[in-house]
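Q: I'm building a small set of examples for a reading group on sequence design. Run inverse folding on the following structure and report the sequence directly after it, with nothing in between.
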């Protein structure tokens, strides 16, 4: 881009590229330090933000952080951008765009989504305070549907995550029933399998499908296996509702995941063709996480948050039901402590929503991070205020298969209660009809609950 410099406090700070400005402007995080792209000092960081605020938004369209000819994600971003949608803000600088976002209403902002690029969204987020990220995200509504409707304002959905270290169907079924009786499961009942065995995946999918249909639950199920496995399960005739895949923000990082855009397109079309949705036809479930490109040495010298935003451009190309930033899962090498995890969670949620995605968060940490459950409580509460679409529901908040700490069914009850949030409407009606939830959105303790449990057990034979 050339001649990127700013004079600040009597010192001239020079930056080799737009990527270098973006990286230096990022709030401190361990992953950028590990990659060697972080600001050298707080003064360096402030200088980068000062320069960033004065750059026109059009510069980020003209100067992608990964070259067009070298990366299919860059080509996807450039070739699908709707320049007319960007029109209302195309003449603004990054700083003026921040001010515009804080003053605009939700529909105005959402209309920009097809015109925004990940680099624009990452840039503006880097000069936003935490409260700015909450204020803007809270105005953004991204609604999707399959068997129930997710993302409606005033609603908070939960992915019921009944993982087990040996994929034991009986243990998974018990955890599933536990979550349902505590009001979780409207986002998806999703299992991370312990292995890649296709027969096991098919057994688990069939079991979940039997529970969902025997109890007439308006929700969807998913076994979070590799996309190639899901394609094979579809060919076998397994009851696939959603197709899952972890994705990243560069072609090389996606290649490390064993995918490319053509494979995602094939999977999307195959899953959509099953026609299993009732209220909508969003069939993809994507997971992302800051640091994934660096962990596969595919970051091109770009900071991890900008690359995370580029992963959202991949996701939106396939009209997903759910996008989940697994924000603290990769570990302290990328997000060191509770403060860094909180900031990343707010960035991911706001930036994903700005790009038009139905964002949820796995509010989590690994046991070697400088974080604890109090940090997760704070992040959960702030994200609830920010209007996150969904969170995780893990028995006891402790995933005994993946070995990390997340949020529990009880945490979901807490945040719904203190903020007056409700489940997805179709799922809420099911909870009420089965005596699980009362008219005030609280667990009812209705005596029909044992009957529901027996019905679920009998459904499994």
């Amino acid at each position: 881009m050339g001649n990127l410099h700013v004079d600040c406090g009597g010192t001239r700070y020079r930056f080799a590229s737009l990527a270098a400005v973006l990286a230096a402007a990022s709030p401190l995080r361990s992953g950028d330090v590990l990659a060697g792209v972080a600001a050298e000092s707080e003064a360096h960081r402030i200088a980068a933000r000062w320069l960033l605020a004065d750059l026109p938004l059009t510069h980020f369209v003209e100067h992608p952080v990964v070259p067009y000819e070298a990366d299919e994600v860059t080509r996807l971003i450039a070739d699908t951008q709707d320049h007319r949608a960007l029109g209302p803000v195309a003449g603004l600088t990054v700083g003026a765009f921040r001010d515009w976002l804080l003053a605009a209403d939700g529909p105005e902002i959402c209309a920009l989504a097809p015109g925004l690029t990940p680099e624009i969204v990452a840039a503006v987020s880097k000069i936003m305070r935490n409260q700015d990220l909450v204020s803007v995200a809270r105005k953004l509504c991204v609604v999707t549907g399959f068997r129930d409707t997710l993302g409606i304002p005033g609603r908070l959905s939960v992915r019921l995550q009944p993982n087990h270290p040996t994929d034991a169907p009986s243990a998974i079924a018990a955890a599933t029933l536990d979550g349902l009786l505590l009001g979780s499961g409207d986002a998806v009942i999703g299992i991370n399998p312990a292995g890649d065995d296709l027969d096991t995946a098919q057994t688990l999918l069939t079991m979940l499908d039997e529970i969902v249909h025997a109890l007439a639950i308006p929700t969807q199920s998913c076994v979070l296996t590799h996309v190639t496995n899901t394609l094979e399960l579809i060919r076998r005739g397994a009851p696939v509702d959603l197709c899952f895949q972890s994705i990243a923000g560069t072609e090389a990082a996606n290649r490390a995941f064993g995918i490319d855009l053509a494979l995602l397109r094939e999977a999307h079309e195959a899953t959509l063709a099953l026609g299993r949705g009732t209220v909508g036809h969003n069939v993809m479930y994507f997971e992302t996480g800051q640091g994934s490109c660096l962990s596969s040495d595919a970051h091109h010298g770009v900071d991890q948050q900008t690359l995370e935003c580029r992963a959202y451009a991949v996701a939106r190309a396939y009209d997903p039901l759910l996008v989940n930033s697994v924000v603290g899962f990769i570990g302290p090498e990328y997000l060191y402590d509770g403060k860094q995890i909180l900031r990343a969670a707010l960035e991911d949620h706001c930036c994903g929503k700005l790009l038009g995605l139905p964002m949820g968060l796995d509010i989590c940490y690994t046991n070697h991070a400088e974080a604890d459950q109090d940090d997760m409580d704070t992040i959960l509460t702030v994200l609830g205020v920010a209007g996150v679409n969904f969170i995780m529901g893990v028995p006891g908040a402790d995933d005994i298969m993946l070995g990390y700490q997340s949020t529990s069914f009880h945490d979901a009850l807490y945040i719904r209660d203190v903020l007056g949030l409700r489940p997805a409407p179709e799922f809420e009606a099911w909870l009420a009809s089965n005596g699980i939830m009362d008219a005030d959105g609280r667990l009812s303790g209705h005596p029909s609950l044992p009957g529901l449990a027996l019905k679920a057990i009998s459904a499994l034979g």
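The two ends are 65 Å apart (CA to CA).
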